[in-house]
Amino acid sequence: MANITKKVSWSSRTDESGTPGEGTPLLNGSERASHSRQIGRLSTVDLEEEITSDEDSQRGRLKEIPHNEKLLSLKYESLDYDNIENQLFLEEERRMSYMGFRCLEISRWVVCGLIGFLTGLIACFIDIAVEELAGIKYQVVKENIEKFTEVGGLSISLLLWAVLNSAIVMMGAIIVAFFEPIAAGSGIPQIKCYLNGIKIPRVVRLKTLVVKVCGVICSVVGGLAVGKEGPMIHSGAVVAAGVSQGRSTSLKRDFKIFEYFRRDTEKRDFVSAGAAAGVSAAFGAPVGGVLFSLEEGASFWNQMLTWRIFFASMISTFTLNFFLSVYHKNPGDLSNPGLINFGRFQSDSVAYNLYEIPLFIAMGAIGGLLGALFNILNYWLTIFRIRYVHRPCLQVMEAMLVAAVTATVSFTMIYFSNDCQPLGPEHSEEYPLQLFCADGEYNSMATAFFNTPERSVRSLFHNQPGSYNPLTLGLFTLTYFFLACWTYGLAVSAGVFIPSLLIGAAWGRLCGILLASIPSNGSIWADPGKYALIGAAAQLGGIVRMTLSLTVIMVEATGNVTYGLPIMLVLMTAKIVGDYFVEGLYDIHIKLQSVPFLHWDAPATSHWLTAREVMSSQVTCLNRIEKVGTIVDTLSNTSTNHNGFPVVVQVSGSDEPAKLCGLILRSQLIVLLKHKVFVELARSRLTHRKLQLKDFRDAYPRFPPIQSIHVSQDERECMMDLTEFMNATPYTVPQETSLPRVFKLFRALGLRHLVVVDDVNRVVGLVTRKDLARYHLGKHGLEELQLAQT
Amino acid sequence: MANITKKVSWSSRTDESGTPGEGTPLLNGSERASHSRQIGRLSTVDLEEEITSDEDSQRGRLKEIPHNEKLLSLKYESLDYDNIENQLFLEEERRMSYMGFRCLEISRWVVCGLIGFLTGLIACFIDIAVEELAGIKYQVVKENIEKFTEVGGLSISLLLWAVLNSAIVMMGAIIVAFFEPIAAGSGIPQIKCYLNGIKIPRVVRLKTLVVKVCGVICSVVGGLAVGKEGPMIHSGAVVAAGVSQGRSTSLKRDFKIFEYFRRDTEKRDFVSAGAAAGVSAAFGAPVGGVLFSLEEGASFWNQMLTWRIFFASMISTFTLNFFLSVYHKNPGDLSNPGLINFGRFQSDSVAYNLYEIPLFIAMGAIGGLLGALFNILNYWLTIFRIRYVHRPCLQVMEAMLVAAVTATVSFTMIYFSNDCQPLGPEHSEEYPLQLFCADGEYNSMATAFFNTPERSVRSLFHNQPGSYNPLTLGLFTLTYFFLACWTYGLAVSAGVFIPSLLIGAAWGRLCGILLASIPSNGSIWADPGKYALIGAAAQLGGIVRMTLSLTVIMVEATGNVTYGLPIMLVLMTAKIVGDYFVEGLYDIHIKLQSVPFLHWDAPATSHWLTAREVMSSQVTCLNRIEKVGTIVDTLSNTSTNHNGFPVVVQVSGSDEPAKLCGLILRSQLIVLLKHKVFVELARSRLTHRKLQLKDFRDAYPRFPPIQSIHVSQDERECMMDLTEFMNATPYTVPQETSLPRVFKLFRALGLRHLVVVDDVNRVVGLVTRKDLARYHLGKHGLEELQLAQT
Question: Contacts of residue A336 in chain B, CB cutoff 8 Å?
Fold first, then answer.
């Protein structure tokens, strides 16, 4: 579609403010060329994450790199979910007793418990902070409005409201845009990618977490059309990645615990648990959290792992619930399982009837249509942003503009609305605005706009029939739809769940009211809250297109199992209708970043492709005993920045290509070079310490770049014996293997490199994630994406 | 442990009554030898399922085969969940357009919908039949008791009750023991094995379904301590296996639809959906059903598949709900989502407090202990049964004895109980027995015994505090515990879920009553129903040891999300405590059948084993162009009944072993021989029809035995070209691969054969399921099971 110039992305930062102790921008090592380099088949090319900071300063600010979503970026590395079974690893495992494995298992449980607890605490902190700050803000504005309603001059109130909002949002936008751009948005696409096996730089760092938490508080308090639920998932993932490693690189603290977990395989498992704990805290939906993690992440389902994930989720929602109950001065009353609480639906009053199911399905279709519209608008907007709004200061200004516009629109809507409702004795409104209504009445438009979005959703679900008139709801839907669409993608931390629910609840309730006005025997259509719920599900499903997990999340948030079937039908319809037009919102954003995302299956019509066509055939192989100079040169070669190298054994004195005997990673070679594990040195220094797994774990995950390792000219002549360190049994496939078969092997085992061999075990190629992600099913059958160095 | 003589098993029948159209007993081809043959490393030996019926009659009735649970049976075949990507398959896939794949996808949805619908209907049929028949029975007995309470001579009532029960149970036991022994029990272990990849003969046949449904109705109506829930899972699986194949071999009808689904891969997916639909109908727990299928079956999680499974589950519970609402003359009132309905817990009255959680955990520990006791007793009983109660007539007599004893014990308990409770205006009892109570009162022991177990569970959950006195509950727990333990394993179709729940609910309520008697400020311990629920969860968890899925099933059956955390904690405690003593009930029964079951992970301490040690090295290889005589001889060799054959290519004129070029299955060779696909014939007859995938699909899954295929002496000299039919790209591993790595590959991809090659791609061994299942973690570290031909 659009061919746009890309300057802002998840993995490059246009501004690096030189954090102490880090100082290394990411993934931009070879981006100095100011023109595009589209490399056809060199798909094993990965760039190392860290380069030295002096190179960074040479980087130009603006790089014009043609980019569109038909490209696949080469700058994203993969994670390695296949254990590197080299001799060191096997020796360690063999030394370990049965009790040792038991202890490991127990510490996994402890870590999951900790993850759940901390995630719950963070959710609790966000909730309380938003509650308190928003309370102050709305109180100030309300008093101001009440003052000026009497004396006239409400424009001053408007100004106050807009300025307050803008100022708060500005703070949130500044920390995100200037300090940690990866913390923008909900973080769900990034976590999806991480669990899929893609290394998104800095996505699970402590700094990201801090910025995310502060950012989301600012955006919600600032009155944007956003929710605080999506960011919880990201926060949970960061907590998990931090806790499970037993150290913080940012804080330079190593607690010397959980060292066994310092590898991609284990870390991914914990990040799944963290994401689940986040969902669980956000929606009070522990089962939904588990299903979310599995839907997005799992390639290989493991019973114990799932059970641990569930444990983390339960602890998380319980922690949140407990601390909120203490905060609400009602300790022990566990009635706040999540950040958003749909409130209790009385199952008697809102049981559905069989003949309502077609209505629900129709609403699902509407949700799918509106969701597709939302996504298309947001897609255009995102492209616009990538092209024109890429400087941090512009991003901050846009966020402030949106905040001001949101306040203005809200105010205008409230001002011109004359929908007054009597204030009941036990009104659920926190800040009822009387405005021009009679005494004892309140402005019903204000309940929707002059409130945190969570409260608005709850009002729409549960307020008595007649609390809103249809015009109010229609106008609200319309304005909020565009506001939410504009807001998503701003440089602020914010989720799209709650705005979607709110839009859906509004038009759903509208549907309910319209149905109730049909003359009939009365009672059956009476409850608009039910339709608000269905509408909310339809709208959310139409935008994010999640399936099973979303159904369960909605059911758990409702606290009522009765709605399972209608919600499932609605989500399914919304997904089918929406998918006809455009993908889900998260997938759009993933695609716009050109991330090599692997879906569940290979494209249906890809059986005619074989490994021979898919693989990259310019494979750099190393000998089992290799010259240090060769290794350094190979690693330093920026044009072919390979990350995995098949290790081969040359048949002595023959000319034919050597046979495969292992696979070694760049990161391992770097550690070997750093510790100077050379054959000659081992011989001369008898006391030379043998390299251990610990040395690799200490370097994980931020391996130094090759440039930072000094190798003298003498040392270049030494030899390195890779036998002990290479993975001696890499998975291989023959050249004739069909793409779906390669795909299945790759995906099921979470591989990073798959060696293609011929019939006598000689290396002929290497398949990596990008080789597989290149093929996707377009409108006209199988399409191949271009690889690009962007 | 026990070294027992085995005569009854899932896969051998001591009685074959010659069903028309089938007439082929199973897996006993080479069991004529009356002594044990323990074969050490020949683990690729599988026996074909079907042998000709004249061989069957030669089989002796009693075979004394030493057997214990440290053996691994060689008679179980594996299913092949890896697609056989031969040229025929690839050609078909390549011919198929994108629309073709869409149509396939749609038909998958249609099939899943049908599976859900039919499973729901079956559940409905069982429920109504049980309701009606049990109603008649209890009414007759009640009237009789009332008559004789006045005039004396209640022993006649006892006799009537016992005889009625025995007669009904006899019918159920006869059809199971004589017609379809595989229909005995709950069927859950068998479905677990099927989903794990083991071919349990006749487990998904129509006849099994019919016997199962009739059997379960008889056992429940016959008043045994059993439930109708477990069998629903098996029924759902049979429905799925039948519907998805578009034909019934038993009925000899082929609808010529869904032919694409006639292979293990697709069939397994549908059986997962069927099992989920069964759980869903049984407990009204669609999400629990999905999780059950995943926990037991999935090796590779696929989003679309999961969503389809969920769809089947939803349809199933909805169908049941709808038809039951029609039956209850309340169409449209969807309040019966499952066969067992825990009733509505009012969340206000039974919310739990923080300080109750330690109590819940303690109850979980009690559940774990009692569950372990139950399992150990049942284990001994099962061994006793295998040794002594193996003739069908003995089995029927045992079932009748249990029925009579159950009635007698129940009657005695009711008779000697003097726990009278006032009959409330809106009593939940269907058949209140007054017996010796005053007018307007009823015997409280009778509500527990004189009732279907489902109703008893509901009474224990919801009856007012004070409905039961502690002695009643204690006695009931004690007797029902032993009755249920004796009942499980009888030759009747019956589940263990409901008895477990009932035992747990009884002692749980007892705990609640005892706690309430502790002097305190009164109201907090007031509700014994809550403790009944926790007790039920603890007891069930202690017996079956399911985790995530059981939590969700319990939560969905309760209809209340609030109980998530306590139920999870209780189930976790029960599992930990129970696992310390003995495995779960289903696993015990699987182990006693010596099934080569693959768990999630390789044993923890197995890293020192490599493929070289694990593999079986006597591999029969075939040449790519092989003499028909050789193939026939290889297949007919009963001592090495291999099922998969690596295909090799000989380097011309050299002596060294040939290189691997493919893998072909016994079933494929059989079809080739049957259609006489010989090189010479193809040359002579130019019009010779090319063999198509359809021919293989038509033969699936009951491939004829090699003995039934006639090959003349001339034909033996012909050659067969396997190139087109073999899987040209089998997965391979080098000899040095560690066991966990082999295991992961095998399990993640659902393989049946994994070829082990050396560094120049020559076949050195073959790893099959039995080679991996042999190793398990015992009390003293890694143990190796013996392979046996039993």
Answer: none
Are B729 and A729 in contact (CB < 8 Å)? no
Instruction: Please answer yes or no on whether B98 and A781 come within 8 Å at the CB atom.
Output: yes
For A748, the closest of B300, B551, B562 (CB atoms) is B300
The answer to pTM > 0.95 is no
In angstroms, the separation between the Cα of residue B689 and the nearest Cα of chain A is: 25
Q: Do B332 and A347 touch (CB under 8 A)?
A: no
Rounded Cα distance between B407 and B166, Å, is: 9
For residue A624, count other CB atoms closer than 10 A to its CB. 18
Confidence of residue B215 (pLDDT cuts 50, 70, 90): very high
> What stretch of H or E contains B108?
helix B98-151
Do the strands A253-254 and A420-422 form a parallel or antiparallel pair, or are they unpaired?
unpaired
Q: How close does chain B come to A199, measured CA to CA in Å?
A: 22
pLDDT of B11 higher than 60: no
Conformation bin of residue A115: beta by default, left when phi > 0, alpha when psi is -120 to 50: alpha
Name the nearest CA neighbour of B128 among B328, B350, B380, B395.
B328
For residues B138-162, give the mean pLDDT: 84
Comparing CB atoms, the residue among A331, A607, A761 nearest residue B759 is: A761
| Predicted confidence (pLDDT) per residue in A472-490, tens digit | 889 889 999 999 999 998 9
CB contact under 8 A, A94 and B607: yes
Nearest to A298 among B98, B301, B781 (CB): B301
Look up residue B371 and give its two tokens: 């569950």
Confidence of residue A428 (pLDDT cuts 50, 70, 90): low
Q: Residue B53 has what pLDDT? A: 39
Interface predicted TM-score of the whole assembly (ipTM), two decimals: 0.88
- Cα–Cα distance measured from residue A539 to residue A511, given in angstroms and rounded to the nearest whole number: 13
Contact of B509 with B473, CB cutoff 8 Å:
yes
Kind plus residue range of the DSSP H or E element containing B733: strand B732-734
Give the pLDDT mean for B692-701. Answer: 84
Q: Whole-angstrom Cα distance, residue B311 to residue B129?
A: 27
Span B406-462, pLDDT tens digits: 999 988 888 887 777 777 655 555 667 777 777 777 777 777 778 888 888 888 888
What mean pLDDT do residues A137-151 have?
84
Identify whether the C-beta of residue B691 lies closer than 8 Å to the C-beta of residue B732. Answer: no
Q: What is the SS3 assignment for B268-318?
A: HHHHHHHHHHHHHHHHCCHHHHHHHHHHHCCCECCHHHHHHHHHHHHHHHH
Q: Do B572 and A311 touch (CB under 8 A)?
A: yes
- Which of A729, A756, A776 has the highest number of chain B CBs within 10 A, making it the mutation to test binding with B? A729
> For A165-178, what is each residue's pLDDT tens digit?
999 999 999 999 99
Question: What is chain A's mean pLDDT, rounded?
Answer: 82
* Interface touch A85/B738, C-beta < 8 Å: yes
Cα B157 to Cα A357, B151, B170, B436, B488: the distances in Å are 51, 12, 20, 15, 27
CA distance B600 to chain A (A): 6
3-state secondary structure B598-648: CCCCCCCCCCCCEHHHHCECCCCCEECEEEHHHHHHHHHCCCCCCCEEEEE
- Nearest Cα of chain A lies from the Cα of B35 at a distance, in angstroms, of 37
Q: What is the structure's pLDDT at A369?
A: 96
In B, minimum Cα distance to A106 occurs at: B576
Please report residues of A whose CB lies closer than 8 A to that of B310. 547-548, 551, 568
Q: How many angstroms separate the CA of residue B601 from the nearest CA in chain A?
A: 8
